[in-house]
Design goal:
By secondary structure, the protein is mainly beta. The chain has three helices and 19 strands. The strands form four sheets. Strands 1, 2, 12, 13, 14, 15, 16, 17 and 19 form a nine-stranded mixed β-sheet that branches. It has a four-stranded antiparallel β-sheet with strand order 5-11-10-9. The mean pLDDT is 97. InterPro entries: MoCF_Sase_C, MOCOS_middle, Pyrv_Knase-like_insert_dom_sf. This is MOSC domain-containing protein.
């Protein structure tokens, strides 16, 4: 297998930032999902609720070396905003059911987000201490940690599995006398790593993955939500791929596509690297 895509998301639910190489840290890829938007109750605000978040482009020096700050935010029709590393006191925030701590970015960042996204209750926060977060019991080990991903530091998806899912969607549409859909891009699943060269859904059996020289432990399959039904270009939603996943990839009431990984060490990886799965 080979690594064919490498993606980070400095702002949770923001635009995907494709890279040719990245640094792997115990908490995941450098700067992946280290910033998050919360509401007035300090609970996560994601593209599930605010689709326009997909249009916010967040870059850090790890994704664009020309960025002269900790974070640069861009959005159509708005001036760029540079955000320094917050020095504010940490506050309690909620990521679904998780109670975490984060540093507020400040009024300028909040005002920018409110103007771009059209809500007056938004706040930008930064994960200052990812090592304080523990991961899901039963699937993690002592010392495993992450910033603001939903559950585990890294996700990996297979293009072979994506092609099989596209075939299933066409088959189901024809059975229902519907117009066959165009293939969905694998970006719908917002994976950090995308590989090609194995059988469809071979990842169901993986326990360990080595990308280049960097080993990862498989945590668990990725449970899918409505986010995958949101088109990142048109910002419209549809039944797919949820409808087809429910038919072919439902286990105990959950829909699965891709798998979570936990880095076993630090290192550098890049597009084109050999990938070995065990």
């Amino acid at each position: 297998m080979r690594l064919v895509q490498l993606n980070v998301h400095p702002l949770k639910s923001g635009a995907i930032r494709p890279l040719t190489s990245a640094t792997v840290l115990p908490r995941g890829l450098a700067d992946d999902r280290t910033w998050m938007i919360v509401d007035g109750d300090r609970c996560l605000v994601s593209a599930r609720e605010v689709h326009r978040l997909f249009t916010v482009v967040a870059d850090t020096p790890a994704t664009d070396p020309s960025v002269a700050a900790a974070l640069r935010l861009r959005a159509p029709g708005h001036p760029d905003l540079l955000v320094d590393v917050p020095q504010t006191a940490p506050v309690d925030v909620r990521l679904f059911s998780l109670h975490l701590r984060a540093r507020p970015a400040g009024r300028d960042a909040d005002a920018w987000l409110r103007a771009v996204l059209g809500r007056d209750d938004l706040h930008l926060v930064w994960c200052h201490a990812p090592e304080e977060r523990t991961l899901q019991p039963g699937f993690s080990r002592p010392g495993d940690h992450a910033a603001f991903p939903d559950s585990f530091p890294v996700t990996i998806a297979s293009l072979a599995s994506m092609r099989r899912l596209d075939d299933w969607m066409v088959e189901q549409a024809l059975e229902l006398s519907e117009e066959p859909p165009d293939p969905l891009p694998v970006e719908r699943f917002r994976a950090n790593l995308v590989v090609d060269g194995d059988e469809p859904f071979a990842e169901d059996r993986w326990t360990r993955v080595v990308v280049g020289d960097v080993p990862f432990r498989v945590g668990k399959p990725v449970g899918r939500c409505v986010m995958a039904t949101l088109d990142p270009v048109t910002l419209t939603t549809s039944e797919e791929p949820t409808r087809t996943l429910a038919r072919h990839r439902r286990v105990d009431g959950k829909l699965f596509f891709a798998v979570h990984l936990v880095p076993e060490t630090s290192g550098r990886i890049g597009v084109g690297d050999a990938v070995r799965a065990e």
